[in-house]
Specification:
Elements (H helix, E strand, L loop, with lengths): L1 E10 L7 H9 L7 E7 L27 H14 L5 E10 L4 E2 L14 E5 L2 E2 L16 E4 L20 E3 L7 E2 L12 E3 L7 E2 L12 E3 L20 E3 L7 E2 L12 E3 L7 E2 L12 E3 L20 E3 L21 E3 L21 E3 L21 E3 L21 E3 L21 E3 L21 E3 L21 E3 L24 E3 L18 E3 L21 E3 L22 E3 L21 E3 L21 E3 L22 E3 L38 E3 L9 E3 L2 E3 L1
Length: 708
């Protein structure tokens, strides 16, 4: 049956009082069958303006109920056809159907709906679309959507009676072909969207009637060629042909599109552009031909002074000729990423002085000339990650004074010039991760007062100079993870002592044995995992009241007895102590961590764990105690439940079947119920409870039921 109908009604008469009596009575709505909402607006009598939504339940109980959804549509049509013109008129109608329901649209189905301006039909199955479906309908219909219907064919001259239609959306159907006369009569159409169909053929004259068309979206089809009539669309400003099967662009494919601004040819199978195939597009400002198999770009291919965004990434050309950019003085964004480029000539960007973004990531470039960016004074974003560059000259960025985002990650850098970032006072983000850097030169960051994010992870750093962070007054994230750092200078973080914006510090996967003074940092995220830290002193985390996520897992910590780690930190939400050598957790260590949600103490040497340690944590949802030496669940007993607990992991401990049962005389484990386990019955919302061990077969508790 029809799943929903949304009807917008325009009421302009003082006879609105008759609306419910004369209109809804005739519709015979069944509240169990239909979800029908009526949006009433523009009523002349203010006292009725609050009728913005009238439920089907408002119909009198003694009405004869409609038994068929098609009857409802017929009733709408018949009533509207004979309704007095001074009562109500339907302006907008949306029809949706349940899966596999067949909607029967008949000849003249919408006859009489003279005020209808917007019609949306979305049903999985439509029996057919009669060519005279819209005969007798209002000529003022300006928006028509027929989507997700499974229709294969649009009848010729289907839209002939809709001279003022401006938007036609026929997406997500199964249409395979559009013929010459299918769009006849659509002189006013400005938006046409036949995207996401199965279109493989467009006859030569199909677009000829569409003299006013501005937007044409045909992406996600199976087109391997375009009709000659495409060139007749002189008013077209937007054309999307993405995700089709086009293999080449001929010299005359886009001739006649003199108003085109945006062209998308992404993810086709294009391997070549014929000479001068784009020269007629004088007004083009956005061109995207990424995701094809283009091996060669003809000389002078881009010849539009209006072009400001060019994406030719994800192709297969090895080099690009600077002469292609001779007539692109207003280019703002150039994307050449992932295109198998081996080398780039120094003058490539000389003819586009207004570039703001250059993306060269994912190529095979080994070197760049020192003057490569010398004519790019407006460059803001420069992406060079994923190449094979081992060095850049000290003056490489001297021509880019307003550069903000620099990504040099995943290259082969082993050394850096201390002057490489000189005078880049606008720089906000620097990524040098995944290179082979062994050191950072003195003064490297000294002229970056606005730097916010610095990523040096995945290098071979063994130490850093005490003045490493000098000049970085606004840093908020520093990533030094995955290096070989053994020690950090005691005063390395001093430049950030009076700055409260530094929130994120990553030092995991190094060889740190101790920490410098970081107690004054207002960090919220601190990761020290996989180091060689043996002791956490009281001073390490003193006054770090903003800390919310702390990870000190997989170190060599064997005791916390003299280290009230987060005693005063009520904001901590995640604490990972796993992979150490802890034999006990001090009772008062976490007493004020009332917001803690995640606690992992797995892979230690605990022989017991008292739940009084976490008894105040009403938000704790995940507790992991796996791979310890806990023998008896009775030691876990406590009186106060934890209402937010979702996951409790006790796997790989020394539990046995006997001591998991609260009562010695209890039945075998296979017959035990949730309530007989101690203390798991204290977790009313527990979803997963794992007790895996060689002596106990795997089982879990899901929503209070034991499952083996």
């Amino acid at each position: 049956m029809i799943e929903y109908m949304e009807i917008s009604i325009h009421c302009y008469s003082k006879k609105f009082v008759n609306l419910q009596e004369n209109y809804f009575h005739i519709l015979k709505l069944h509240s169990d069958q239909y979800k029908v909402s009526f949006n009433i607006d523009s009523c002349s009598e203010p006292k009725f303006s609050y009728y913005s939504l009238i439920s089907p339940n408002s119909v009198e109980k003694n009405n004869e109920l409609a038994s068929c959804s098609d009857e409802l549509l017929r009733t709408l049509r018949d009533y509207q056809d004979g309704a007095p013109p001074d009562v109500v008129e339907i302006e907008s109608l949306s029809i949706g159907c349940e899966d596999n329901y067949t909607l029967n649209l008949e000849k003249h189905h919408f006859k009489g709906m003279f005020a209808l301006k917007k019609l949306n039909v979305s049903c999985m199955v439509i029996s057919s679309l009669p060519h005279d479906l819209f005969c007798g309908t209002t000529p003022w219909l300006n928006h028509l959507t027929i989507s997700s219907t499974g229709i294969l064919i649009l009848p010729e001259k289907l839209f002939t009676n809709l001279p003022f239609l401006r938007t036609l959306v026929i997406t997500k159907n199964a249409i395979e072909k559009l013929t010459d006369e299918v769009f006849w009569g659509l002189d006013s159409l400005t938006h046409l969207k036949p995207e996401s169909n199965k279109l493989s053929m467009l006859t030569d004259l199909v677009f000829l009637p569409l003299k006013s068309l501005h937007i044409l979206n045909m992406k996600n089809n199976s087109l391997d060629s375009l009709p000659q009539s495409l060139g007749s669309l002189s008013q077209l400003t937007f054309l999307d042909l993405s995700n089709n099967n086009l293999v080449e662009v001929s010299y005359d494919m886009f001739q006649g599109l003199k108003s085109l601004n945006r062209l998308y040819l992404t993810y086709n199978k294009i391997f070549q552009f014929e000479h001068e195939s784009l020269t007629g597009l004088k007004t083009i400002n956005y061109l995207d031909i990424s995701g094809n198999v283009i091996q060669y770009l003809p000389e002078g291919m881009f010849q539009s002074s209006s072009l400001h965004t060019l994406s030719i990434n994800e192709n297969s050309y090895n080099e690009i000729n600077p002469e292609n950019f001779l007539i692109t003085p207003n280019l703002r964004e150039l994307n050449l990423a992932q295109s198998s480029i081996i080398s780039l000539r120094s003058e490539l960007l000389f003819y586009s002085p207004h570039l703001r973004l250059v993306d060269l990531r994912g190529n095979f470039v080994t070197e760049l000339a020192s003057d490569f960016l010398s004519k790019s004074p407006q460059l803001v974003y420069f992406y060079l990650q994923g190449n094979k560059i081992s060095n850049l000259s000290s003056n490489f960025f001297h021509g880019t004074p307003i550069l903000e985002d620099l990504n040099l990650s995943s290259n082969n850098f082993t050394i850096l010039s201390s002057l490489l970032l000189k005078n880049l006072s606008c720089l906000l983000y620097v990524d040098l991760s995944n290179n082979s850097l062994k050191s950072i030169p003195k003064g490297f960051l000294s002229e970056l007062p606005n730097l916010q994010i610095l990523n040096l992870s995945g290098n071979e750093l063994t130490n850093l100079l005490p003045d490493f962070l000098n000049g970085t007054r606004k840093l908020n994230k520093l990533d030094l993870s995955n290096n070989n750092i053994i020690t950090l200078p005691d005063n390395i973080f001093d430049p950030l002592r009076f700055y409260d914006g530094f929130h994120h510090l990553e030092l995991q996967n190094n060889k740190l044995e101790k920490l410098p003074d970081i107690s004054f940092l207002e960090v919220s995220y601190l990761n020290l995992a996989f180091n060689n830290i043996e002791d956490i002193s009281r001073d390490n985390f003193h006054n770090m009241t903003s800390l919310t996520h702390l990870n000190i897992s997989h170190n060599a910590i064997d005791t916390l007895t003299n280290s009230p780690l987060i005693l005063k930190y009520q904001n901590v939400m995640s604490l990972d102590l796993s992979g150490n050598s802890l034999s006990e957790i001090p009772n008062k260590m976490l007493m004020e961590a009332i917001r803690l949600q995640f606690l992992d103490i797995s892979r230690n040497k605990l022989t017991s764990f008292k739940f009084s340690i976490v008894s105040n944590m009403q938000e704790l949802s995940e507790l992991r105690l796996a791979f310890n030496l806990i023998k008896n669940l009775k030691t876990l007993w406590y009186e106060n439940p934890l209402p937010s607990m979702k996951v409790l992991d006790l796997s790989h401990n020394l539990l046995s079947k006997e001591n998991t049962i609260q009562s010695k005389g209890a039945p075998t484990m296979e017959k035990k119920q949730w309530e007989n386990l101690s203390p798991m019955n204290k977790f009313p919302n527990l979803e997963v409870n794992v007790l895996l061990h060689y002596n106990i077969r795997y089982f879990r508790v899901v929503h209070g039921k034991l499952e083996f």
